[in-house]
Amino acid sequence: MTPAQYLKARAKLENDHRAKLKSLDEVWAMLNDSPPPQPIDSHEMATNQVRGAWRQLARQVIEGMPAGTQFTIREIESGIAEINPLVSTDRVQISIYLKQLADGKEIKVAEAGGGRRATIYKK
Q1: DSSP letter assigned to residue 106
Q2: Is the dihedral of CA 74, 78, 84, 86 positive or negative?
Q3: Which residue of 23, 50, 60, 116 has the lowest C-beta tally within 10 Å?
Q4: Domain boundaries, the chain
Q5: Band of the pLDDT at 29, cuts 50, 70, 90?
Q6: Could you tell me how far CA 24 lies from the centroid of its own chain?
Q7: CA–CA distances in Å: residue 1 to residues 8, 9, 15, 53, 64
């Protein structure tokens, strides 16, 4: 397949797809006397799913640790990467999340950090 053939086939598929979507919208409008609901952008939906994914994975990492285990942000970050390397993490956000868990008594601060020394948490 040449680039020109590919582009021609792609344009035809896009036009066919648009025509089918327009027909579906018209059927909706006739049956419901209102415009069709607007779909959620797939990129937006994926972004929203990923935003919360690291928190779920962080909780999963912590829950997988034996009771009394001590850990830092780095262990949580590497645990998330082991479970799902596609999820991006931010140490600042992980730090804030761990502080929230400690404030909620879900984990404990074993040793408060300071300066360049990381806070050590305990499950």
Answers
A1: S
A2: positive
A3: 116
A4: 1-37, 52-122
A5: confident
A6: 31
A7: 11, 10, 20, 40, 50
Mean pLDDT of 19-24: 90
All residues at 6 or more sequence positions from 54 whose CB lies less than 8 Å from its CB, including other chains: 80, 87, 88, 89, 90, 93, 94
The Cα–Cα gap between 89 and 77 comes to 7
Let me know if 76 is exposed, middle or buried by CB neighbors in 10 A (0-12, 13-18, 19+). buried
Q: 82-103 b/e with 16+ CB inside 10 Å = b?
A: eeeeeeebeeeebbebbeebbe
Instruction: Please give the CATH architecture assigned to the domain spanning 52-122.
Output: Orthogonal Bundle (1.10)
Task: Check: pTM over 0.70? Answer yes or no.
Answer: no
State residue 34's pLDDT score. 79
- Count the Cβ atoms, other than its own, within 10 Å of residue 62: 19
What's the mean per-residue pLDDT of the chain? 86
At residue 58 the predicted structure's pLDDT band, cuts being 50, 70 and 90, is very high
pLDDT for residue 98: 95
